[in-house]
Write a structure and sequence with these properties.
This protein has 393 residues and is an alpha/beta fold. It folds into 2 domains: 169 residues, Rossmann fold, CATH 3.40.50; 201 residues, Phosphoglycerate kinase, N-terminal domain (Rossmann fold, 3-Layer(aba) Sandwich), CATH 3.40.50.1260. The protein is built from 15 helices and 17 strands.
């Protein structure tokens, strides 16, 4: 078991907290502050224990100077200040005298937010390559390191794995909760049902293999289901299909004929766009030039029966193109079924988590993960490097 923030005396200590404040921002305005809110418990604990709090986070990907302008953490500092009720000092650099003096002048209960750690990725990728000198520099600013950024725990970066090498370390409340809740999927109460959606099957082959083997039933949708349906001989016309994975899908169908549950109907359009005419089809009779972009009511009914018969559900990926209003039916319907089921329901981060929150189901399930890739790798049984780097109790 990993050390927790509760295992340290934080009084008058400089506590570096790696948060995941990678929120969507448009024109300087935060569109969804869920990740900031999820970070508050650990930040507030450190403040209440008289710590000097130094927050690190990334935002977006930095591949040019222009990316830096569009991915500053300043809007996050303003929102965090509002949520905490006092000013969070924003330091608009990732290293240098301004940062060092700001840390030197801190008093207990002060909070500093350092500029986007991925600014160090241009031009030399020092953050994402886990540059030892950068990690050592950041570590020199603190006395204790707390990793509370679950969404990056599958990455070995300077701001998570690197710093932990040079400071006493522990996980924060968010990471602690994520690991505990995802253990409900790693060691599920059976029967165990997985719902897998999303676009390309090839991106998730190992996860699909692992979860189908582990589950009692695998309910497939989206581009993943299209590939399996094609493997069974369906002609879905212009629908998204992962051609490279058709043979693998055939092998899985042969190996798990009673586990793999596929949709039977859906809604389609001629283009991957919103606000176009929508047609309903049984999936064995789709018209030419049509793209199936959502599951239909018959599929929802079939999926519902499996959900009702289980004790644990893990969902990763929407069952349709839920960001389009014309194709949100299936995802919203499945969320409603899951809410009413009263089962152990874990939503595996990424697009499915975003959809659950967007559609008003934020508090409807056992757990909604803050980390898409991290949650999948943990459920798959992989070691997460940023967790592995933390001291054991």
């Amino acid at each position: 078991m990993k050390k927790s923030i509760k295992d340290f005396d934080l009084n008058n200590k400089r506590v570096i907290i790696r948060c995941d404040l990678n929120v969507p921002i448009k024109d300087g305005k935060i569109l969804d502050d869920n990740r900031i809110i999820q970070s508050l418990q650990t930040i507030k604990w450190a403040i209440s224990n008289n710590a000097k709090v130094i927050i690190l986070s990334h935002l977006g990907r930095i591949k040019s100077e222009a990316d830096k302008k569009n991915n500053t953490l300043l809007p996050v500092a303003i929102r965090l200040s509002n949520l905490l009720g006092f000013e969070v000092k924003f330091v608009n650099e990732t290293r240098g005298s301004v940062l060092e003096n700001a840390v030197k002048n801190m008093k207990p209960k002060d909070v500093i937010l350092v500029e986007n750690t991925r600014f160090e990725d241009y031009p030399f990728k020092k953050e994402s390559s886990n540059d030892e000198n950068l990690a050592r520099y950041w570590a020199s600013l603190g006395d204790i390191f707390i990793n509370d950024a679950f969404g990056t725990c599958h990455r070995a970066h300077a701001s998570n794995v690197g710093i932990a090498k040079f400071l006493p370390s522990a996980v924060g409340f968010l990471v602690e909760k994520e690991l505990m809740m995802l253990d409900c999927v790693v060691n599920p109460k059976r029967p165990f049902v997985v719902i897998l959606g999303g676009a390309k099957m090839n991106d998730k082959i190992k996860v699909i293999d692992n979860l189908i083997e582990k589950s009692d039933y695998a309910l497939l949708a989206g581009g993943i289901a299209n590939t399996f349906l094609t493997a069974k001989g369906y002609d879905l016309k212009a629908s998204l299909i992962d051609e490279e994975s058709i043979n693998h899908a055939k092998e899985l169908i042969k190996k798990y004929p009673s586990k793999i549950i596929l949709p039977v109907d859906g809604y389609a359009s001629t283009k991957y766009e919103d606000n176009l005419k929508v047609n309903y089809y049984l999936l064995d009779n789709v018209d030419d030039n049509m793209m199936v972009l959502d599951i239909g009511p018959k599929s929802v009914d079939i999926f519902s029966k499996y959900i009702d018969s289980c004790n644990t559900v893990f969902m990763n990926g929407p069952v349709g193109v839920s960001e389009f209003s014309n194709f949100e039916y299936g995802t919203k319907s499945i969320f409603e079924v899951l809410k009413k089921s009263k089962k152990i329901v874990v939503i595996g981060g990424g697009d499915s988590a975003a959809a659950a929150i967007r559609f008003g189901y934020k508090d409807s399930f056992t757990h909604i993960s803050t980390g898409g890739g991290a949650s999948l790798e943990y459920v798959e049984g992989k070691t997460l490097p940023a967790i592995d780097a933390i001291e054991n109790k």
